[in-house]
C-alpha cells in the first residue's frame, strides 16, 4: 500500500497527523504500508510556487492511494485564481481522473442530539451521496470575464456533461445502490437545464441494466428541501459536480457536524484520494481544536475501496463508534455543557479503541 500523505493547509496537518498515527499502528501490526509525504494547496504554493507542483504530480501518479487533509486559507485569497489552493485540489482530481466522489452521511446514534435537526428526523440516517467530480460547470470551457454587448463587465461559466461522463457515474450509482438499499435518486435540474435533460435521459437508460434498483429523479431544489424535511427517504443519491458539492455540505449537518464526513474520490480502477469533506478551518488552525474523525473515517474508506481490506475499515469504524460511545467529543460535536477534548486527545482515544 503506497500511500501519499498530503496534509494541505489550515487544520490539515493536525487532522492528518492523527490519521497517520492510525496508519503507523497498522504498519507495526504487519500491514504493508509505505508512507510518503507531499504538498498540495497553499503549502505547495509556499514551497514551489504552485498549488499542484510537478513533484506532487509525480508522487500522486506513483501512489496507490492518497490521503488529503484540506486546502485553502485567507493568506492565499489575493492570489490569481490559477495559483489558489483550491485549484490544486481541482487539478489533482482532474489529473488523476477521480470522477466518482462518494460522500456517505451516516448519523452515529450518540450524535443524534448534535444534529441541527430533530432526533426523530435524523435517527438512523444513512445516505450515500455520489457526486460526479471531474466535469460540469467546475471544468467547463469557455469560462472567464468579458464585456457584454452593453459594454458591461460579465463573468461566465459553461455547464456541460457528455454522455460517457454521465454513464460512468450512473453505473457507480446503480452498483452502489445494489450493495445497499437498492434505491437510487438522481438529482438534476431538468426543468431548466439542457445538461440536466441529457443527464436524466442517460441515467434512465443505464437504469434499464439494473432492474433491481428503484430509480427516481428529483430536481435539485426539491432535493435540498427533502434532505432537511425527510432525509431518511434517501438511500443513494447520484448527481453532478456542482449540485453534489452543495447537497453534501447540507447532508453533513444532518450527521451532526461537517467534521464527521469522510469522502472517497475514485478513478475507474479504484485508485483513490481520500479526504474529509470539510475545509481548512483557518479560524481554529493550530489550536488542537479540530475533529480528526472525518479524516480517519476517510482512511476506512481507503482500506475498503482501494485496498479491499474491509477488516481494517471495520476496525477504524468500530474505534470511532467506541470513542463516541465513551462520550469523547471534540468541540464541533459536543452539546452545550459537555466536556470536550482536542484533536490529539481524540486521536489518542481512537488509537486505544483500535486495540480494544
Ligand atoms: C469540496 C470543496 C471543493 C469543491 C472546493 C474547496 C474547491 O468544497 O470538496 O466539496 O468545491 O469541490
Ligand atoms: Mg464543498
Task: Describe the 3D structure.
The protein is α/β, with parallel strands linked by helices. The chain folds into two domains: 1-99 and 268-356, Isopropylmalate Dehydrogenase; 102-266, Isopropylmalate Dehydrogenase (3-Layer(aba) Sandwich). The chain contains twelve helices and twelve strands. Strands 2-1-3-12-11-4-5-10-8-9 form a ten-stranded mixed sheet, with helices on both faces. The model has no long low-confidence stretch (mean pLDDT 96). Bound molecules: 3-isopropylmalic acid and magnesium ion. 3-isopropylmalic acid is lined by residues 86, 89-90, 245, 277.
Listing every helix as H and every strand as E from the N terminus to the C terminus, the arrangement reads EHEHHEHEHEEEHEHEHEHEEHHH
Outline: globular
Kindly state the mean pLDDT as a whole number?
A: 96
Strand content: 15-25%
Amino acid at each position: 500500500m503506497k500511500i501519499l500523505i498530503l496534509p494541505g493547509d489550515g487544520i490539515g496537518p493536525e487532522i492528518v497527523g492523527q490519521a497517520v498515527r492510525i496508519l503507523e499502528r497498522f504498519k507495526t501490526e504487519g500491514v504493508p504500508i509505505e508512507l510518503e509525504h507531499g504538498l498540495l494547496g497553499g503549502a505547495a504554493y509556499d514551497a514551489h510556487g504552485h498549488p499542484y507542483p510537478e513533484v506532487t504530480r509525480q508522487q500522486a501518479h506513483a501512489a496507490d492511494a492518497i490521503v488529503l487533509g484540506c486546502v485553502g486559507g485567507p493568506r492565499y485569497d489575493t492570489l490569481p485564481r490559477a495559483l489558489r489552493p483550491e485549484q490544486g485540489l481541482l487539478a489533482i482530481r482532474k489529473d488523476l481522473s477521480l470522477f466518482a466522489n462518494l460522500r456517505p452521511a451516516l448519523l452515529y446514534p450518540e450524535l443524534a442530539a448534535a444534529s441541527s435537526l430533530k432526533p426523530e428526523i435524523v435517527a438512523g440516517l444513512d445516505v450515500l451521496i455520489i457526486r460526479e467530480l471531474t466535469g460540469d460547470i467546475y471544468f467547463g470551457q469557455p469560462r472567464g470575464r468579458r464585456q457584454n454587448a452593453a459594454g458591461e463587465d460579465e463573468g461566465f461559466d459553461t455547464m456541460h456533461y457528455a454522455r460517457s461522463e454521465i454513464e460512468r457515474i450512473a453505473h457507480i450509482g446503480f452498483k452502489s445502490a445494489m450493495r445497499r438499499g437498492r434505491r437510487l435518486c438522481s438529482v438534476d435540474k431538468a426543468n431548466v437545464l439542457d445538461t440536466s435533460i441529457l443527464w436524466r435521459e442517460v441515467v434512465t437508460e443505464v437504469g434499464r441494466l439494473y432492474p433491481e434498483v428503484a430509480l427516481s429523479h428529483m430536481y435539485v431544489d426539491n432535493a435540498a428541501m427533502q434532505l432537511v424535511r425527510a432525509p431518511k427517504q434517501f438511500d443513494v443519491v447520484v448527481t453532478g459536480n456542482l449540485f453534489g458539492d452543495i447537497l453534501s455540505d447540507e447532508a453533513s449537518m444532518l450527521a451532526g457536524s461537517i467534521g464527521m464526513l469522510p469522502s472517497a474520490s475514485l478513478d475507474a480502477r479504484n485508485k483513490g484520494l481520500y479526504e474529509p469533506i470539510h475545509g481548512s478551518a483557518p479560524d481554529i488552525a493550530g489550536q488542537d481544536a479540530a475533529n480528526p474523525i472525518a479524516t480517519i473515517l476517510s482512511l476506512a474508506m481507503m482500506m475498503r475501496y482501494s485496498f479491499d481490506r474491509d477488516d481494517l475499515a471495520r476496525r477504524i469504524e468500530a474505534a470511532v463508534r467506541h470513542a463516541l460511545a465513551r462520550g469523547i467529543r471534540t468541540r464541533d460535536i459536543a452539546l452545550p455543557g459537555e466536556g470536550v477534548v482536542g484533536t490529539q486527545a481524540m486521536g489518542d482515544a481512537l488509537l486505544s479503541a483500535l486495540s480494544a
